[in-house]
Amino acid sequence: MLRVEDGQKRGCIYFFFDKDGIVDDYIICLLDDLIQNIDELVIVCNGKLSDEGKKKLEKYHSQIIVRPNEGLDVWAYKEGLSYFGWDKIEALDELVMLNHTIMGPVYPFAETFGKMSGKDVDFWGITKHAKVDDDPYGLNPYGYLPEHIQSHFMVYRKRLLCSKEFQHYWDNFREIRNYRDSVCFHESYFTKYFADLGYKWDVSVDVSDLEDVSDYPGFYCARHMVEKKRCPIFKRRSFFHDYGQLLETTTGQSVYELYKFLKESGLYDTELIWQNILRTMDHTDIAKNLQLNYTLPLSVLKAPKEFKNNNLRKTALLLHIYYTEELEKLKKYICNMPLYADVYITTQTEEKKKYIENICFDLPYKIEVKLVENRGRDVSALMMVGKELVKKYEYICFIHDKKVTQEKPGSVGEGFAYICYENVLGSKQYVENILQLFENNKHLGVACPPRPLHGPYVFGLMETWERNYSNAVKLLEKLDIKVPIDKYKVPIAPHGSCFWFRSDAVKKLFEYEWKYDDFPEEPLPIDGTISHAIERIYAYVAQSAGYYSSVVMNDEYSKIEYTTLMHYAMHYGNQSLLKFFEGGKKINYHGWDYRIKYFLKRILPKEVFVNVINAKRKIMGPHKVYKYED
Question: How many CB atoms are closer than 10 A to CB 366?
Fold first, then answer.
């Protein structure tokens, strides 16, 4: 075992947990550096450890303990202490305890150990959390959260290790049932408890100048901590943290800025981040925290000249036509494809095929019109024809004649189509910019236009699966795709079925043996079909292949998007919904009351919906009993 000598005899307990027992390379990167600073390593795995993961860890010639997933980190550390035994621990100068919730090191751990070697302390860590006057968990013995060293990396020295207080603390540790117990009875408790007993402590990263900025600078000031203060670690949680909490004290920039610094500086291999987060985290959390939305120029070409004419980039447009009267309008969008791209058009009848060929004969592309069955319309056409295209092309754009017939007036559907077409094929330059975006971001798998938010589509602001969650889960199971999926987190999806994708990202979806019988017959249901499930699982399929999904829009449309979102934020807000359900003053925000009923009627069973509306009417005063047809 390679050891950087600094005169200290140092032991280490590393706690590891992964629900699948997989050891990703960010773990190896951290341990490869850490092992140079310690004499003996014990790795405690809660739950299970895969055979491949075990092989990865065996190279450290350490003791590997696999135990039940009970007691979280606290009881894993306790298990490691039992393995060492107090006699052996008392012979150490330092004992390190750290866990898998941190990534790094951005700078060698030797720098941190060296920095702390001259400090007259009994225990120390890398980062600390400031005092919080109240206890958000309601469990801390002190009634508030004291200032404390964060337990993801702590080091205990001989005076503390040999003390009866320290040994008694661990030998008699209470049951830990959940995260709250761990925080309140250990992480936020340990530092003050032992400080009150006279033991001295400190952290390697001085955050005294950040006391008025954040009580948790390691998270909310992550880039500053790494770049300016040479903090060697950052939190894995950064990439799946609740974005609402992030917005309480930041503008949402902290994780994005951290990643940008790591990527641009080259101090940490960001591929290690992608490997783990795309396997373990919900893609919507990743997209929010890393700001994976793109606004691209409509009239300016960002692509370099040598890339612009690169015919090696195999690109295709697949267009489905059901309403032939829409084709003339779509021709201008077809012409925004690069000249090196091939164009495929699907339709249902020989008559329509001849019409399409006649309309498109003068377009400067290799065009092939294919007949498909009239079942499942655009989605079935994409699945049936796309399975051959993904074998031939690297990037594919899919659009169809977006004509909404169920919403009135017709301008509602026209607006939906505008969003789809303009943000997928807005101009020649814009298309080249999208292709360059894929080239520049090798983990980008699917790029969707923003979802509509006007008219009845306003309920997109409420983030709902509508009737499609169970269908999507079943379909993913059928495809043997195992990635995080949450019914409370709505996927990034091409609502309207117009989008760009990298073939390698979604190939597994096309490899399934689709049949036309899998798709609904005419007239198409509004929601809840296999077609709607497919529309919502592209991001999960891409994630299972190691790619993320994003929303992309052109710079002109971004003006509209911003105005729309600010309008809703300023004029409606969550209070409108609360007033509706609480039976408050009648809401008359341009039909908002009607829209909520429209939304509820679409997602609730008939009996439940009627009961909700009648309960509201009863609270607000005497009204006639609501009938479902009202």
Answer: 12
Mention the CATH class of domain 1-204: alpha beta
Its pTM stands at 0.88
**Overall CATH class of domain 294-565:** alpha beta
Could you tell me what percentage of the chain is helix, strand and coil, using 3-state DSSP and rounding each to the nearest 5?
A: 50, 15, 40
Residue 186 per-residue DSSP state? I
Q: What is the DSSP letter of 208?
A: G
CA 107 from centre of chain: 27
**In angstroms, how far apart are the furthest CA atoms of the chain?**
90
Instruction: Please give the structure tokens belonging to residue 428.
Output: 């020649």
List the one residue out of 14, 21, 154 whose CA is nearest residue 84: 14
Angle at CA of residue 63, ends 46 and 21, nearest 5°:
30
Which helix (H) or strand (E) segment is 350 a member of? helix 350-360
Distant-in-sequence, close-in-space partners of 491: CB < 8 Å, separation ≥ 6: 283, 284, 472, 485, 536, 537, 539, 540, 549
Give yes or no for a contact between 316 and 342, defined as CB atoms under 8 angstroms apart: yes
Q: Where in the chain is the domain with CATH 3.90.550.10?
A: 1-204
How many C-beta neighbours within 10 Å does residue 165 have? 12
In this predicted model, what pLDDT tens digit does every residue of 83-113 receive, in sequence order? 999 999 999 999 999 999 999 999 999 999 9
Run of H or E including 234: strand 234-235
Nearest to 498 by CA among 435, 444, 452, 544: 452
Residue 244 C-alpha from the chain's centroid: 14
Q: Look at the alpha carbons of 371, 377, 378, 382 in this order and tell me if their dihedral is positive or negative.
A: negative
**Sheet strands (E) in 376-505:** 395-400, 444-448, 499-502
How many C-beta atoms surround the C-beta of residue 290 within 10 A? Answer: 20
Residue 557 to residue 451: CA distance in whole angstroms: 12
pLDDT in tens, 357-391: 999 999 999 999 999 998 998 999 999 999 999 99
Helix (H) or strand (E) holding 292: none
| Residues facing 67 on adjacent strands | 46
pLDDT tens digits along 189-223? 999 999 999 999 999 999 999 999 999 999 999 99
Is residue 258 within 8 Å of 234, Cβ to Cβ?
A: yes
Identify the residue whose tokens are 């909520």: 596
